[in-house]
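[audit] Reproducing an earlier prediction to check determinism. Same input, same settings, fresh worker. If the C-alpha cells differ from the archived copy the diff job will pick it up downstream; this log only records the rerun itself.
[audit] input (353 residues):
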Amino acid sequence: MSRGTQAHGAMLESRYAQTTRHTTHYLACGPEDGPLIVFVHGWPELSLSWRHQLPVFGGLGFRAVAPDLRGYGHSSVYREHAEYRQEAVVTDMLELLAELGRERAVWVGHDWGSPTVWNLARLYPERCVAVANLCVPYLTIENGLEHTLTLVDRELYPEDAYPAGQWEYMRFYEENFARATSVFEADPYRTVKLLFRKGDPADAGKPAFTAEVRRQGGWFGPLDAAPDLPRDADVVSEEDLAVYAEALTRNGFFGPDSYYMNHAANAAWVADRPERLSLPVLFLAARYDYVCDAVGSRLAEPMRAQCSDLTEHVIDSGHWMAQERPHAVNAALARWLATRLAAYWPQPATDAG
C-alpha cells in the first residue's frame, strides 16, 4: 500500500495490483473481506471520480474499489493506440479481481468505464454478481462506432449536417488525433476545468456541443488550448481539479484519447458473441446528458431488449453524474443492491460471546 487519499472525511487506501503484463493503481475503502464492488471510471477521469461513492459503500460494509484505468493516474501508460482496446482493458480488470483474491464482483461503470463493465457482463458473466452503469447504455459504443451510429436521432442530427450525429467528436479523434491531443495537453488544468460541468436543462432539444467538434476544427474550434472558464463548484473542487490536472499533465492525453481509436477492434472482439444478459443490471440515465442521450433518443432500446433483469432510473444530472449528483447516485445504487441483491448486502457483525 502507498499513501492514503482523503475523501469527505474518509481515508481511502491507495494500492497497486501488479502482474507481469500491467500495473493497476486503485483506491479502496471498507473492510477487506466485505462484498466487493468495483467502480470503473471513464474519460478523462481517475479513480478519484468515485470519491463520493467509495466512502459511502465502504462505510456500509462493502469492499469498495476504484482503479485507475490504463493510461490514467498511477496505472501503466502505453504509447500504442492498440494498447487501449477493450480486450486489454477488460483483461486488466480480470487481473485486478484476481489480485484482490476474489472470484466475482459487482461492477459499476461510467463513460468509457461502461463498455468495460458491459463487456465483463457479456463475456465473463461468471466474474460478475451484477453490473450497473451510468449514462452509457448496453450495446452501444462497446459494439463500435458504426453500430452506435444506427441509433442516432436523425431528426435532431440530419445526416447531411451531422454524419456521425452527436458522435462527430469521435470521428475527429480518428481524423485528427494529434490535433485533439495537443490541444488538451496545452493546458490540462483548463481542459478539465472546462469539461467538468453540470448539465443544463436549457440545452434540451438542441444538438450536443460534441456534434460540432469536427465542423469547427476541434473541441475548442481554432483555439490551441482550452479557454479559461470558471470552475463549476457543483461538480469539482479546486483540490480535486488539481489532482486531475497533475495526473493528465504527467501522463498526457495520448492514452485517454486512444480509447477512441479502437472502435473496429472492439467491435470485432465481441462480434458473434451472445448479447443476452441474465444477471441483475442497473442503468442510471442522466436527464441532461445530451451526448449519451438515453432519455429522449433510441440509445437505450437495444439494452432494454437484451437484459432480462433490468432496473432503470433517471437522474436529473449531466454527464458527470457521480460527481454532480452523488447523493442521488448513491441512493439509487444502494436501493438496487438492497432490493435486487439482498443476499450480497454486507452482513452485520455478530458478537463472538
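[audit] rerun output stored. Observation attached for the diff report: The radius of gyration is 19 Å.
[audit] end
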